[in-house]
Amino acid sequence: MKRLLLLSVLALGLSAPALAPAQAQVNILEGPGLVKAVSTNDVSALRMLLLKGENPNQTDISGKTALQIAIGNSNAEVVKMLLDGGANPNRADKQGNAPLHYAVDADDVATVDQLLKKGAKVDQDNREGMTPLMMAARNGRPDLVDRLLKAGAKADRTDFTGRTTLSWAQDGRNARVINMLRQAGAR
């Protein structure tokens, strides 16, 4: 049937590309082109879209920003391109998690450093009141705890359930992290 339709179109003098839009399928869950390029780690498409002026702060249907998706994909090159292209290092998803939360949760030291250099708010809390420092403490990551403290994170914060950074560190069972937080004033 498609072949007959194509022959009929050609006989009428129309070009075959005229059929393309009619045959195109749309996936509403896919999101904008920039989000798709980030989701599929298509660096060349992302570069082209950013050069064309696409907004680097686009979100997918669940509210995740392109930057958060790139961090989740552990793609340092895409993260750098988005940040250099103007992505907001503090834009949170629907749960209030900022890119720094994603990077800490992924134990991605290089991305944490990039985000801090681009102005990420070190004490931004999510909808549960958790800060990136609390997450690093819970995960027992002394390297991340050290970076966040040096960037100005407050060691004595409390989340919305009343848990302190120190209590999260005790869950992580890393004596070095616990000592670092105590030295920084955590109680």
From TrEMBL:
Coiled coil: none annotated. Keywords: ANK repeat, Repeat, Signal. ANK repeats lie at residues 62-94, 95-127, 128-160. Residues 1-20 form the signal peptide. This is Ankyrin repeat protein. It comes from Azospirillum rugosum.
